[in-house]
Design goal:
By secondary structure, the protein is α+β, with helices and mostly antiparallel strands. The chain has 2 helices and 5 strands, in the order E-H-H-E-E-E-E. The protein starts with a strand and ends in an 8-residue tail after the last strand.
Length: about 80
């Protein structure tokens, strides 16, 4: 049986798990491995609805269905 899932939420979640896996998160790595065996029915969205922010000490990842962008925090020393 397949699970109906919003296309934008599905891909945003996969992209977020990918970022976390690249940071070494073992739970994210395991979730990505499990997702390969999942059967889902992707439902087209009228408007993209998935977006996540992942804040780290060095900056913030903006994650959408299209990928992830890293925004580095400005150096406190270079503000003078």
């Amino acid at each position: 049986m397949t699970e109906p899932v919003s296309r934008s939420v599905y891909y945003t979640t996969l992209n977020l798990l990918t970022v976390l896996a690249q940071q070494g998160d073992p739970d994210a790595i395991a979730a990505l491995q499990r997702s390969e065996n999942m059967e889902v029915e992707l439902i087209d969205d009228d408007e993209p609805s998935g977006e996540a922010l992942l804040e780290l000490p060095t900056g913030t990842f903006v994650v959408t269905e299209h990928g992830a962008t890293f925004l580095a925090k400005p150096d406190a020393d270079s503000s003078s």
